[in-house]
From TrEMBL:
ATP binds at F91, G92, S93, D104, I105, D106, D159, K220, Y229, G238, V239. It catalyses: RNA(n) + ATP = RNA(n)-3'-adenine ribonucleotide + diphosphate. This is Poly(A) polymerase. Coiled coil: none annotated. It comes from Zea mays. SUPFAM superfamilies: Nucleotidyltransferase, PAP/Archaeal CCA-adding enzyme, C-terminal domain, PAP/OAS1 substrate-binding domain. Residues 568-581 have a biased composition (Low complexity). Its EC number is 2.7.7.19. GO terms for biological process: mRNA processing; RNA 3'-end processing.
Length: 694
């Protein structure tokens, strides 16, 4: 039993759930896990590591020369020119040591107060980099939430940020973890600095950095394999996963990587969102920058999965998460928890945890977003813009169907090699909300939603002729063959293998009888003229040079005509199994499709020629929905901030249950009833590993 005098160090805002270290079986599983990660190619070679160091050295010299040049041009003394300096920091996966082969390097350049971002960084330094021989794919993004310059230097991807601090001379040993670095800077500079400040805090707040790194490398790889690694799509990005893993390390400070991975899924399978995950208490300083606080900021009450950064000003790093993407991640956490339990019982091995998610077998209906451009460079710019807005399509569908139609955006892009134009496609799975009674034959009309999304996409400032977008509804048997690794559709697995998919199809309230054949006849009845109109309105941005009145060039027509939906039994695809045909869905995009392009019809073409039934029972006024959400949010906030300060436990019972560690036998696993901001009300350790705490 631990005495008060030799109490262990507390790394987080609560006591650990368990202080016990590994047994022999845990060490063996850790060795097997590390071997698997190595064989999976997650570690870069010594040569690539050396090349990264060389590139960072060259970039550091470039920014130092750049600042000296500007100092001289602005008439400062020779001594000032001599002392002028810029310091390069790294953050993200490279700073944490969990980057893999081909990963980019997140870098921050800190310069003096007289060197600004708008002109000096994005114009002068941009020009210097553009003339540097080894720099390619240079892309400034000045209007981003965190302004960044992206490029490749000697083949290595670099994301370069800039922060101008309130110093005339930047010392070589500048410590940006100190709060004084934030004096007299704007919010864009604060966001730029916080990447490095957060990385430094994570390193400081985890008990064992090496164990943290191995567990994080493992879970990032798992997230990518299971399709839940993408901040821009509404899932979690690198910093989010790092913060979650760091919190688990705090709860199990003596655990080895295999234990941390297992405990990760156990913790976040039971976490009660939107209770926040925090590595330390939220501190408010006198600098006046806004911090995450649902008591004061109404917008913070709408966050579904708050993961709070540990450096001032503390912010929610996962504000992109929606109800749909949270649902998907919780399902994947359940999967991970089940596999880890089987691994601990020696029923399976680590490769089973990293089996890729069979996205195109999980749903009956999908939205296909086709993006095309004249060449690869235009596609890179156009795709970046569209991808950054895809999350909005998910949110709009949730909004317009009152959460009844759920979206699963898949953060992987696909390309059709048969196209003459540069092309890529993204997909979203569609399903009805589980447990909600629905009327037979009920359909969702999201034509207006898609039109609104397209209108926003077409506002792209740097649009060029040839940049086109099409959004179409495809059924599972119509998914194009190029999305499959082998280039053809695999035979459908037996029903017991695809149990999760069957559950989604039957238990979510989807009717067994579908109007599929009726819709097919209605789509076939759309005339040729209507098809042309639909093709233009669904794929072409609204620009005068590309309007229907002005006609289109041969190249534009060639690109537009290539936006075709792959037939169910052509292009290398195998016919759908009888199972798939018999269980036709009725969760559909309730709008006719152009039979030439596969794009969703919109505008007058739909209103004149479509008799597809629309949703009529969604009559709840928007204001009523907002009022209901507000009441729910207020209830959550009242529970969340029931204590005097954020980060403390929500009830004395939770704190008392955590203090019962002393009554446990020395060699018994510690479970505990609840921890960490009230997020875990249940025991975390499996029954065969602990003695229940009364």
């Amino acid at each position: 039993m631990a005495s008060g005098s030799d109490a262990p160090k507390q790394y987080g805002i609560t006591k650990p759930l368990s202080l016990l270290g590994p047994v022999e079986a845990d060490l063996q599983r850790t060795e097997e896990l590390e071997k698997f990660l190595l064989e999976s190619g997650l570690y870069e070679s010594p040569d690539e590591s050396a090349r990264r160091e060389e590139v960072l050295g060259k970039l550091d010299q470039i920014v130092k020369d750049w600042v000296k040049q500007l100092t001289s041009q602005r008439g400062y003394t020779d001594q000032m020119v001599e002392e002028a300096n810029a310091v390069l920091f790294t953050f993200g996966s490279y700073r944490l040591g969990v980057h893999g082969p081909g990963a980019d390097i997140d870098t921050l350049c800190v310069g003096p107060s007289y060197v600004n971002r708008e002109e000096d960084f994005f114009i002068v330094l941009h020009g210097i980099l553009a003339q540097t021989e080894d720099v390619t794919e240079l892309q400034p993004v000045p209007d981003a939430h965190v302004p960044v310059m992206k490029f490749k230097f000697h083949g290595i991807s670099i994301d370069l940020l800039y922060a101008s601090v309130s110093l005339l001379v930047v010392p070589a040993d500048l410590d940006i973890s100190q709060g004084s670095v934030l004096y007299d800077v704007d919010e864009a500079t604060v966001r730029s600095l916080n990447g490095c400040r957060v990385a430094d805090q994570i390193i400081r707040l985890v008990p064992n950095f090496e164990n943290f790194r191995t567990a994080l490398r493992c879970l990032k790889y798992w997230a990518k394999r299971r399709g839940v690694y993408s901040n821009v799509t509404g899932f979690l990005g690198g910093v989010n996963w790092a913060l979650l893993v760091a919190r688990v390390c705090q709860l199990y400070p003596n655990a080895v990587p295999s234990m941390l991975v297992s405990r990760f899924f156990r913790v976040f399978t039971q976490w009660q969102w939107p209770n926040p995950v925090m590595l330390c208490s939220i501190e408010e300083e006198e600098l006046g920058f806004p911090v995450w606080d649902p008591r004061k900021n109404p917008r913070d009450r709408c966050h579904h999965m708050p993961i709070i950064t540990p450096a001032y000003p503390c912010m929610n790093s996962s504000y992109n998460v929606s109800t749909s993407t949270l649902r998907v991640m919780l399902e994947q956490f359940q999967f991970g928890n089940r596999i880890c339990q089987e691994i601990e019982m020696n029923k399976t091995s680590w490769p089973a945890l990293f089996e890729p998610f069979q996205f195109f077998e999980a749903y009956k209906n999908y939205l296909q977003v086709d993006i095309i451009a004249e060449d690869d460079e235009d596609l890179r710019l156009w795709k970046g813009w569209v991808e950054s807005r895809l999350r909005q399509l998910t949110l709009k569908i949730e909004r317009d169907t009152y959460g009844m139609l759920q979206c699963h955006p898949y953060p992987h892009e696909y390309a059709d090699p048969s196209r003459q134009c540069a092309h890529c496609a993204f997909f979203m799975g569609l399903s009805r909300k589980e447990g909600v009674k629905i009327q037979e034959g009920q359909q969702f009309d999201i034509r207006g939603t898609v039109d609104e999304f397209r209108h926003e996409i077409n506002m792209y400032m740097f649009w060029k002729p040839g940049m086109e977008l099409a959004v179409s509804h495809v059924r599972r048997k119509q998914v194009p063959a190029y999305v499959f690794p082998e280039g053809y559709k695999r035979p459908r697995p037996s029903r017991h293998v695809n149990h999760q998919s069957d559950k989604n199809d039957t238990e979510d309230g989807t009717a067994t009888r579908s109007p599929d054949s009726q819709l097919k006849r209605k789509h076939d009845s759309v005339g040729t003229d209507d098809i042309r109109y639909a093709k233009r309105s669904s794929t072409s941005p609204v620009h005068p040079k590309n309007s229907p009145q002005s006609g289109s060039t041969g190249d534009e027509t060639r690109c537009n005509n290539q936006i075709k939906r792959a037939p169910s039994d052509a292009s290398g695809g195998s016919p759908a199994s009888p199972q798939a045909s018999e269980r036709s869905p009725d969760t559909i995009l309730s709008a006719p499709r152009c039979t030439t392009t596969g794009a969703v019809c919109s505008g007058d073409a739909i209103s004149k020629h479509s008799s597809v039934p629309l949703v009529e029972n969604c009559t709840t006024p928007t204001v009523a929905v907002c009022t209901t959400l507000k009441r729910v949010a207020e209830k959550v906030v009242s529970e969340l901030v029931g204590s005097e300060r954020l980060g403390s436990n929500n009830s004395a019972e939770l704190l008392e249950s955590m203090e019962k560690e002393d009554v446990l036998a020395e060699n018994v696993r510690f479970g505990g009833n609840g921890v960490a901001q009230g997020g875990l009300p249940e025991e975390l350790e499996p029954n065969n590993r602990i003695e229940a705490v009364s």
